[in-house]
Amino acid sequence: MNVGIESINLYAGPAYIPVSTIFEARGLDMERFNNLMMDNKSMGLPCEDTVTNAVNAAKPIIDQLSPEEKDRIELVITASESGLDFGKSLSTYIHDYLGLNRNCRLFELKQACYGGTAALHMAACFVASGVSPGAKALVIASDVARAAAKKTYAEVSQAVGAVAMLISDKPDILELDWGATGYYGYEVMDTCRPLPEIETGDPDLSLLSYLDCLENSFKHYAERVDEADFRETFDYLVFHTPFAGMVKGGHRKMMRDLYRLKPDLIEADFSKRVSPSLQHCVQVGNIYSATVYMALCSLLDNGDINDVKRVGIFSYGSGCSSEFYSGIVTPDSQHKIKQMNIQQQLSRRYPLNMNEYDTLLDLNLEWIFGVQNKTVNVAQFSAMYDHFFAGRNLLVLDKVTEFHREYRFS
Amino acid sequence: MNKEYVLELLKGCITETLDDLDINSIRHDQYLKDLGANSLDRMDIILTVMEKLEIKVPLVEMAQTRSIHDLAEFLLQKKVAVQ
């Protein structure tokens, strides 16, 4: 059976700020700017949360389906490290605002930035199991940065966004190489969200853990897949991209370890096989559980997919769990994703200046986990709202009444 | 192989990555960060020195902040353990 991603879409926020603006305003070391390899960071508004981001990513996919196809969505899994309730999952709100069939499993899972991959593979196994032939699953990875610690190098990469994926036996976007996957996980305290208002950790440890996981999950993949070769098997590589510089480090380590390649050859391979996956990422920043699938969108939008191509995908989530797997994309995958106009959506975002950015950080702080009763005051950020949302039928948060979140379409 | 050998090897790897650094200016009580190495530079330095020593240590074990002196000591112990 062919199983994989039938449709995919990215929602990456209504506003952005150039990373260089944050560096200058915070007095950060500009030498480190180049190592990050980031241009812009996406910002959300107080009328947004992980539910609105998820629905705004998923709705264009759902709108393309016939009523019969839509009714075959029997599973909605949300993956998030920024949930809104300890008990109630984001998927319940999302299911409601997308108008999906009530004969459907709804739940949420988390494992930091690996969550989207965990959800994808659970959904693929459901489809492949044949327990409900022809059924589809909607997987949505959706995250928002917690209050950024100002004046840290983490601040510049912490962004907002969601990727929605329809998983089925009609894998127009990515057909999974069934069983071709390697795992690697162990307990480590690298980065975490131990309190509602913070994300914290040791970025150095996280980088090194990411590199260990890349090496060992690929090793496991190679044990399971005859003649798998990191350099030869994959036409393109898609990695979890907290910032593009980290992907560059990971790729460099693999090419050094496995092939003892010289820097110029590594650089050429990076440009050819990895760079297409980074184009969206450098414009958005880290969107946690959704990041690796933003990178997949970027590859499909920017890669030279003139034939059937094999893609190697590496997913890492702090804590930690990781996976290296592969799949097939085709020119039709590229044709299909272009219908989502992702680059046009990114270009449409409102360009923030530093004052507007700091004001939004403070306003967003009022909407962190646990809001009981509160109404969104659009007048506080009307310039950004009018620019991106007004009249576009996107989902926004209206108010919270006794913890129940109420949304409307703009 | 002794600690002096590993120290000199390590300092060579540091200046390979941080090419504008004078090898004679490196003090053994300094940390890689003090020498201006960012996290990717530190990864490169550690990978290079492990390649030259022909040892393989999980990178997370290298995450603990160590001075040049302590890093050389740690690497030597790992080398001795595999011999």
What does it look like?
The complex is a heterodimer of chains A (410) and B (83). Helix content of chain A is 38%, strand content 26%. In chain A, helix 8 crosses helix 9 (263-274). With 410 residues, chain A is an alpha+beta fold. The mean pLDDT of chain A is 96. Chain A folds into 2 domains: 4-174 and 341-409, Thiolase/Chalcone synthase (Peroxisomal Thiolase, Chain A, domain 1); 176-331, Peroxisomal Thiolase, Chain A, domain 1, CATH 3.40.47. A 9-stranded mixed sheet of chain A has the order 5-4-6-7-1-8-13-12-11, with helices on both faces. The termini of chain A are far apart. By secondary structure, chain B is mostly helical. Chain B has a single domain, classed as Non-ribosomal Peptide Synthetase Peptidyl Carrier Protein, Chain A. Chain B is 54% helix and 0% strand. Chain B is built from 3 helices and no strands. Chain B is globular and about 35 Å long. The model of chain B has no long low-confidence stretch (mean pLDDT 91). At the A-B interface, helix 2, helix 7 and helix 8 of A face helix 2 of B. Chain B: Residues 4-79 form the Carrier domain. Chain B: This is Poly(3-hydroxyalkanoate) depolymerase. Chain B: It comes from Paenibacillus monticola. Chain B: InterPro entries: ACP-like_sf, PP-bd_ACP. Chain B: Pfam families: PP-binding. Chain A: Keywords: Transferase.
Compose a concise summary of this entry.
The complex is a heterodimer of chains A (410) and B (83). Chain A is of the alpha+beta class and 410 residues long.
